[in-house]
Amino acid sequence: MKDILIITNYFPPETGAASNRIFHLAEGLQKHHFKVSVLTPLPNYPTGKVFEAYKGRFRHSSVKNNITIDRLWIYASNSKNKLLRLIAMLSYSFSLFWFFIWNKIPKTVIIQSPPLLVAFTSIFFLRSKKRKLILNISDLWPIAGLELGAFKKNFSYKMLEKIERFNYNHANLILGQSNEILSHVRSLFPKKNTFLYRNFPDFVTPKVSKKNTSKGKLKIVYAGLLGIAQGIYKLCQELDYTRIELHIYGAGAEQNKIQTLISNNPELNIIYHGEISRDKLHTALMEYDLTIIPLLNRIYGSVPSKIFEYARLGLPMIYFGGGEGEQIINEYNLGWIAKAGNYSDLNTVISKINPSEIHMERRETIKEVSFKNFDFNTQLNLLSEKI
């Protein structure tokens, strides 16, 4: 049985796409006869505060489903203050360095990126001719930060670019969630060994709802992080509610603004349901006609994992983010496309959706497409051969 260590910033009981993705990877590798261990901070996302059950600890170790999980100290913060965010990343990097000194590290290590500094710390201290380092890139930083307006092209940005290149250069294998990510890596290091590793989900699907589409207004649902990149607050402001209801599940930086908007504008057909467990969410989603996947701005390299999760549920989608995600929606006929950032076009697209298009047969077809083309275990089998 081959030992493998996964280093990540996010892991359950934290919620969100990043946490789910790494959990499924760890569990999948364990089922493929790898001895898996995980290094992660004390859980704190998305609140920026260490969860109550872990407060006051510098380290917490446990074993779940035969996976050893070591949770390390972090100065937790989700502050908009860049210095505090930097301190948070550096604190976890320090904990990793301390762990590396006192513990035996397996010969194969999967490192999640971003955050860039955490990946850099891991690669810097673990690089060795005898060790295989696998860098799992879910978003392209610092490019994504520049597109989101978090960075400016200054000295700090150039330093982050150098760190990015260091990480790519010293990784033995690079996993990328999109073809755009892999193209970017190969533009810098043409001979780098790469593997397209999509964020395919792995869960038992609830039955597709037998109800017909809503007889009145279309019930559109958004479920996920209420962060800056998703732009849900602006979406709430820009949608035409003449023939739709918008239902929202999740938590994040824009949560309070969204709740205030709803409170101050009761005439808007927006219902906020809070945050619920993933299993309960999957069941709840079956009651809606459509889901919407928005991005405030088109982000190069980004392919929202919601595409694959909703496809597995058989839920038709409205995609509003551009890029490679848009191509996937079109290629597999998973729903409707609106031009990224163009809310007028989004409202036009929604107004043209014929409720008769949302029926059981279409939902079952979407599920079949998912099982055939977005299968987690098929992808993991291919990855296992490269590790």
UniProtKB/TrEMBL annotation:
<feature type="domain" description="Glycosyltransferase subfamily 4-like N-terminal">
    <location>
        <begin position="17"/>
        <end position="191"/>
    </location>
</feature>
<keyword id="KW-0472">Membrane</keyword>
<protein>
    <submittedName>
        <fullName>Glycosyltransferase family 4 protein</fullName>
    </submittedName>
</protein>
<feature type="domain" description="Glycosyl transferase family 1">
    <location>
        <begin position="211"/>
        <end position="362"/>
    </location>
</feature>
<feature type="transmembrane region" description="Helical">
    <location>
        <begin position="108"/>
        <end position="126"/>
    </location>
</feature>
<keyword id="KW-1133">Transmembrane helix</keyword>
<dbReference type="InterPro" id="IPR001296">
    <property type="entry name" value="Glyco_trans_1"/>
</dbReference>
<keyword id="KW-0812">Transmembrane</keyword>
<dbReference type="Pfam" id="PF13579">
    <property type="entry name" value="Glyco_trans_4_4"/>
</dbReference>
<dbReference type="InterPro" id="IPR028098">
    <property type="entry name" value="Glyco_trans_4-like_N"/>
</dbReference>
<dbReference type="InterPro" id="IPR050194">
    <property type="entry name" value="Glycosyltransferase_grp1"/>
</dbReference>
<dbReference type="Pfam" id="PF00534">
    <property type="entry name" value="Glycos_transf_1"/>
</dbReference>
<feature type="transmembrane region" description="Helical">
    <location>
        <begin position="83"/>
        <end position="102"/>
    </location>
</feature>
